[in-house]
Amino acid sequence: MSTRNIKLVNFITEPIRDKPVTELPGIGVTLGYKLTDAGFGRASSVLGQFLLFDMDKEYFCDWMFEICQANTRQANECWHCLLKWCDAFL
């Protein structure tokens, strides 16, 4: 299983609680720093934005690009993870 898949499985199998933003698939140290600097240091904060955008992939991915310069792959991985997490917990 690839590292990306492991990160996804680990994230969606438990509540968010106080997980740092870097635990989201697609978010590494650099993007994590940029998100934290913009006030989104916790995965729950990013989840809040995801829900504000009604889980819309285009809006969310555009926001990720604007807020932390995430590329398409990174933003899509993060969106997919949050969608799967919502399926499991909401």
UniProtKB/TrEMBL annotation:
<dbReference type="InterPro" id="IPR036617">
    <property type="entry name" value="BAF_sf"/>
</dbReference>
<dbReference type="InterPro" id="IPR051387">
    <property type="entry name" value="BAF"/>
</dbReference>
<dbReference type="Pfam" id="PF02961">
    <property type="entry name" value="SAM_BAF"/>
</dbReference>
<dbReference type="InterPro" id="IPR004122">
    <property type="entry name" value="BAF_prot"/>
</dbReference>
<dbReference type="GO" id="GO:0000793">
    <property type="term" value="C:condensed chromosome"/>
</dbReference>
<dbReference type="GO" id="GO:0003677">
    <property type="term" value="F:DNA binding"/>
</dbReference>
<dbReference type="GO" id="GO:0051276">
    <property type="term" value="P:chromosome organization"/>
</dbReference>
<dbReference type="GO" id="GO:0005634">
    <property type="term" value="C:nucleus"/>
</dbReference>
<protein>
    <recommendedName>
        <fullName>Barrier to autointegration factor</fullName>
    </recommendedName>
</protein>
<keyword id="KW-0539">Nucleus</keyword>
